[in-house]
Amino acid sequence: MSNTAAEMMDAIFDVAGDTLPPGYPFALWQALVCHAPVLASEQSVGVIPLRTTVSDEGMLLPKRAKLTLRLPAALTTQVATLSGLHLEIEGNALRLGNLKFRPIQAYPTLHAHLVNTDEDEVSFINSVSAQLAELNINAKLICGMRNQLASATRTISGFSLVIHDLKPDASLRLQYNGLGADRNFGCGIFVPHKAITDLD
Fold first, then answer.
1. pTM recorded for the entire structure
2. What are φ and ψ of residue 107, in 5° steps?
3. Cα(183)–Cα(112) distance, rounded to whole angstroms?
4. How far is CA 56 from the centre of its chain?
5. Which region holds residue 161: left if phi is over 0, alpha if psi is between -120 and 50, else beta?
6. Quick one: how far is CA 106 from the chain centroid?
7. Where are the domains of the chain?
8. pLDDT tens digits, one per residue of 79-104
9. Least crowded by CB within 10 Å, which of 56, 125, 172, 190?
10. Superfamily designation of domain 110-192
11. What is the pLDDT of residues 7-16, one digit of tens each?
């Protein structure tokens, strides 16, 4: 994406379900695209990772879980058709409930759970710094732990990342653009982060 990215919105669905498999983002994306093919035509669309708890049964969903899609504002009408659908995620049921749209707001500190890269930490930081410069973003970086997202057929590796001391326009630009590939699997998407010491 570029420095002149289209305006983005967050589409937030109430969701109901019990558990999901650890590598659920791959199957979740396939299910979403099956019902709303327009999502696959927009490279900027991202799926913000669900808040889950690890257990022996899989990834437990909280009672008030939310599924958030970050997408161009022009897609809001098409995405509304997803509300009320029952998705099957590798044998696990996930129901999409009420939908609301939320404009993206500027925050001085943002966090991405996983930014896709095969580089070591030093090279990764240099690469991120170069990408931020291209976006005309001047801010400070804190690289967190190396994380993995894995399913039976694919593995994505990278680092968690906090970017702080962002000016309002830069914060919006970073949230609109994201960093790196695989936004549809939850990678490189930035959300508000209150504690820069929490990098898991």
1. 0.89
2. -130, 145
3. 11
4. 25
5. beta
6. 16
7. 8-103, 110-192
8. 999 999 999 999 999 999 999 999 99
9. 56
10. Crispr-associated protein; domain 2 (3.30.70.1210)
11. 899 999 999 9
